[in-house]
Amino acid sequence: MLASPLNLFWTGAAIAVLLYLSFVSCALWNGLNIVIDRTGDPTLSSDAWTALCMALLWWTIISLGQYTRSANLAEAWKLSKLGVSMSTERLAELERGPTRAAHRRAHFFGLLGAAAGIVFYLLVYRPEGHAVWPKNMTLTNAWFFVMTLGLFTEIFRSLSFVRMDTTVFVRDLDHRVEIDLLDISKLDGFGRIALRGALPWLLTGTIVLLLLLGQRSTELFWPLIAGLVASATIVFAWPMWRVHRLIDNAKKMELARLRREIVETRAAFERPGTEGDRAASRLSALLALEERVEEVREWPLDMPTVFRFALYLALPLGSWLGGAVVERILGLVMG
Questions:
Q1: Are 53 and 210 in contact (CB under 8 A)?
Q2: Mean pLDDT of 168-180
Q3: Keywords for this entry (predicted)?
Q4: DSSP 39
Q5: Which of 38-42, 204-208, 242-246 has the lowest mean pLDDT?
């Protein structure tokens, strides 16, 4: 059964809306403005914009991350049925989900994330005027503290789980993938798996870029964005490179074999008699096959996957445009 993002999408969206409404409630309780007017130009306040981006981050983590895993598992079953990858034992391992050891490792990563979240809050929100110590915190301060802590914890935990899933996909890849050079499209599923694995990290990085629009202090955001982009790159490139090497090696071996046969057949062709006639037709077939093998692409990427990858790379630009659109809509609504 193909994975569908619909239910997960709306579940994540509902949670994101509830989280943002909780911020609005805290802000109203503390008498803070959600929308401010800067010289006749209505816009979201810095805190309101930051809270909106945080809610979007939770939507990404809850819905898109789980959808990616489900869709990749469905893709792995397809590859298995095509006979190109993955034993049923490995697929069963993926379906069972993380092991206890993986959960323990994720808890450790989560603790690291919580520590990073505390540092991030102290260094980023303190200059913005947010209280640091609990006794001085308003409800809004507490909301930002809890959200920051939770987001960093979950992002670090997700890093651990992504590492586990990627390891399972590429483990013993050399011995599991069957390369059919005459139908390389069978391997395109690996490209889709790699791309889906990178998508949540690219989208998270895009939302973090949106966060910059509402911050005065942005120095710490750039290492965070760099880390997210690096995670996306590794998740995408690792399986892609492994499969590329397999295709490249298979292609070189097949071309070497064909060229040996071409040399032998050409020698037979030069001999007189019926043997030369038979060699002539065989030589034509071998030369045509050599040309076809030479043209085989060496990456498991079809054009739709390449197009989607280019679209994902354009997400950061879209995030800035999206921020401008939100500002414009507020201006129209508020007059």
A1: yes
A2: 66
A3: Membrane, Transmembrane, Transmembrane helix
A4: T
A5: 38-42
CA angle 298, 301, 303 (to 5 degrees): 120
User: Which residue bears the tokens 């949670």?
Assistant: 15
Length of the chain: 335
pLDDT in tens, 178-236: 788 888 888 888 888 888 778 777 777 777 777 776 666 666 677 877 887 887 888 78
Residue with tokens 């590492």: 163
How far from chain centre, in Å, is Cα 311?
13
Beta carbons of 184 and 176 less than 8 angstroms apart: no
Q: Which residue is associated with the tokens 């964005």?
A: 225
**All residues at 6 or more sequence positions from 101 whose CB lies less than 8 Å from its CB, including other chains:** none
CA–CA separation, 23 and 14 (whole Å): 14
Whole-angstrom distance, CA of residue 141 vs CA of residue 32? 12
DSSP for 155-194, written as a single string: HHHHHHHHHHHHHHHHTTHHHHPPP-TT-GGGGHHHHHHH
Q: Where do the DSSP E strands lie in the chain?
A: 35-38, 41-44
